[in-house]
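fwd from M.: "can u put these together and see what the complex looks like"

so here's what she sent:
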Amino acid sequence: MEIEKCEVTVIHENVVRAVKEQMPDEDKLVATAELLKVFGDPTRIKIICALLKAEMCVCDLSALLDVSQSAVSHQLKTLKQARLVKYRRDGKVIYYSLDDEHIGRIFEAGYEHVMED
Amino acid sequence: MEIEKCEVTVIHENVVRAVKEQMPDEDKLVATAELLKVFGDPTRIKIICALLKAEMCVCDLSALLDVSQSAVSHQLKTLKQARLVKYRRDGKVIYYSLDDEHIGRIFEAGYEHVMED
DNA sequence: CTCTCATATGAACATCTGTTCATATATATA
DNA sequence: TATATATATGAACAGATGTTCATATGAGAG
């Protein structure tokens, strides 16, 4: 009958119950974490920030950010999977752009917070 | 005199130059990535979401989220270091809350994007 | 001062992540 | 078809990350 105290102790039952009712679905929270995680890497956020200004191809991003072509390509794959960027092909060149104006809002929210210190 | 092609090839010089001028400081972008990275974990985003509703102590968070006391405490440390949460002591109990209403904005921006699919 | 309990912390460990390197794919051009 | 170039991809590896476990710290109660 060994029960660790803190696993079970709830100091403010009413608060916990009230908040529990207001909490969004677990799935949605996990999805939100997964989305924001994609913004949480220097290379990726630079790509996002760059694409906020103009659509660009892999070589341009590579030169602009001073990151290898392979690294850019790998990160673009991550961004694609998270549906943050879309692309169009024109001959040999593939142009990437942000999938959605919404993406900018998330970036801005983070950036503004950083600038307010 | 070996130069890999893509490291140097810039297909759209003018675009790259223009975007480069508009890019924020490297530091700020890295800081933004570091900030958003903190939101990119299921446990932490749940803590943030919970504290959006009410200030809570470690035990309550542990019970609410069904995560061990130790894990909650470790994550609160991360959140503290990123200045996302603040705390006040009342006897044995330490109450955590969001440091800033701004934090909610970032969460909401991500959450809303998730809900729009 | 001692006991209890809320919280913090350090080490260990398994997993995840981002880059590099080598190579493959796809498209245009000669 | 052969070659050049833009991009993608898989394996490998080092470093980061999140949890657990054991233990420490700090404050109130007795």
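replying to her w this: Confidence is low (pLDDT under 50) at residues 1-7 of chain B.
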